[in-house]
Amino acid sequence: MLKKKTIVRDISWLSFNHRVLQEAADPTVPLKERIKFLGIFSNNLDEFFRVRVAALRKMIELGSKAKMHLEADPAAILRDIQTKVLQQQTEFEETWKEVLREMKKQHIFLISEKKLSGLQQKFVLDYFNEEVRSYIVPLMIESLQAFPTLNDKSIYLACKLSKKDGTIAERFALVSIPVRHLPRFILLPSKAGEQQIILLEDIIRFCLPNIFSFFGYDTFSSHVIKVTRDAEIDIDNDVSTSMIQKIEKGLKNRKKGKPVRFVFDKDIDISLLQYLLKRLGLTNNENIVPGGRIHNFKDFMNFPDIFAAQKNLRKKPFTHPLLRNANSVTSVVLEKDILLNFPYHSFNSMIDLLREAAIDPHVVNIKVTCYRLASRSKIINALTNAVRNGKHVTVMLELRARFDEEANIEWKADLEEAGVKVLIGVPNLKVHAKLCLIKRRVNNITTHYGFVSTGNLNEKTANVYGDHCLLTSDRRIMADVNRIFTFLEHPKTRIDILKSCTMLMVCPTGMRRQINQLIDREIKNAATRKHGGIILKVNSLSDKALIEKLNEAARAGVKIKLIIRGICCMFTENKKFKKPVQAISIVDEYLEHARVMIFNNGGNLKVYISSADWMIRNIEHRIEAACPILEKENKQELIDLINIQLNDNVKARILDNNLSNHMVNPRNRTKVRSQVEIYNYLFKKLTASLPAPAGV
Hints:
Strand content: 15-25%
Number of helices: 20
Structural class: alpha/beta
Oligomer: single chain
Number of domains: 4
Radius of gyration: 27 Å
CATH class of the largest domain: Alpha Beta
Number of strands: 25
Largest sheet: 9 strands, mixed
CATH topology of the largest domain: polyphosphate kinase like
Helix content: 25-40%
């Protein structure tokens, strides 16, 4: 049997999600944050089943072709997934019990319908009649010839109805919990110094007699269930159908996707469980996951903020020192590159850049790429105002951004109504690059400026995602950005223009080749004792060819350091490596989202920020851009930030071959929590730029 060359992607992903669960289990993490991490873990797992497990199920149908592609049997991978998910589910339940104990110490109680006081019972009944009843439509499922389609983002109460004297036959029913219309958490009247909370489904449980009294039942058992469905959108090749129509059709089909996971309360009545599995067409070993009383834990990311004050990481973002007292963002960018580091630097500078362009009489054209936008996007507001001011505005809006398809279709309609030219994608290539090009003309002299970013144009996520954005008017960089937009506007005829980019590394035409060349240079330098070195920070490392290239470099003596947030398919421990590979993952309050590449280059470091992870989907099947950081100060700042992360010994886990997720050992060194240290490092630069107080 051949030894695997890489770690199975899906198993590595589960290891990443376990790191999230570790944060929830960490007693040093503030209690509200621990609950949030439990919600993130649950939401991540839902998406994993919707996408990856569904894909593996499809691969099973391909037989030997899929096995050759994966270097493993997809059925075996699914069995491993089931085992690990059940193990993590047990750990999740234990963590939740510990969180409940900690909540109790703060006199916060999540209570069930069985523990309500008389006053609380009246409150719950009144709340049900006034707020909930109108949303409740119970389904007597045994009388339905076609079993109802269960929404995979919803939870349901599966109910068994009976009568104590046995005069009426038992029946089964389903009640959808209306969490889209009502809050999941309801604060109850409580004793002084306490706060008791009840879940919406428990309010409905308490009121089941009111719901089903019409049928004559007096005994009820109810348990929460949920179904996760295949969420992949299949885009057909019908040339007579527009991209919009294809995606809208795919969104409708997604709601009816095959069930890939069924989660239920492990205390559910066995006859009810067997009935549900039969009607859903699921077998007992087909991703059936028994759990606790509560499901759709993703809602706990928005748990009421009723905790005692606890110190946490998040501080208000601050304006970049070069922009703090500037007359405008534009005037600074036209003179000097600015490196913004989110969420420490304020995202408002990005919005201000576009707002200024919208009212600048010399600006004639604005072009941006958009992937995921905030629900009330200030970016879009600035762009539509630019149109009102007579600017030509082009937005490349990627309609196939997973789980944002519907929102982006709505944004397309809003933008076109405002007069914006909207591009909706390139056939077979998702547009994932984060780019902006602003054209300014003064006295017949044209200047281009804008930005290249690692993150989305989303002011909401910019407060919690760690990303980098280069604001620049560098002619060489902006010439390449202009080439990419030329291609996006003419994808059928101008693909070759991407190959002419000289500063940006662009997918799918040149980035792989250029990365290989940069690694080869480090290998050559290591052979001539010029200290070859590579530092790579990405969200995911799974591209097999690039992993093998890193292996080659490590065998040649290149010092490799990796910061990988999520999937890492590389076996980082190998006796043939001349120097050990340092590989860590950082999970903390902010989501590490940036991609950075640093090559030693014989001492003249080459530093890039990028939108692309090292995955085959990014390198081969997306439009991506990696941008060099050229100015000395910006380059050194980014290197310093990466080195702070490499020294993290509080929130860093070691990425080893066994996926053990062991924490980095401080070994009596000063503790370094990188996200705190980065804030301090950048804030110190801000204070150093401020004028001294009068009299000093």
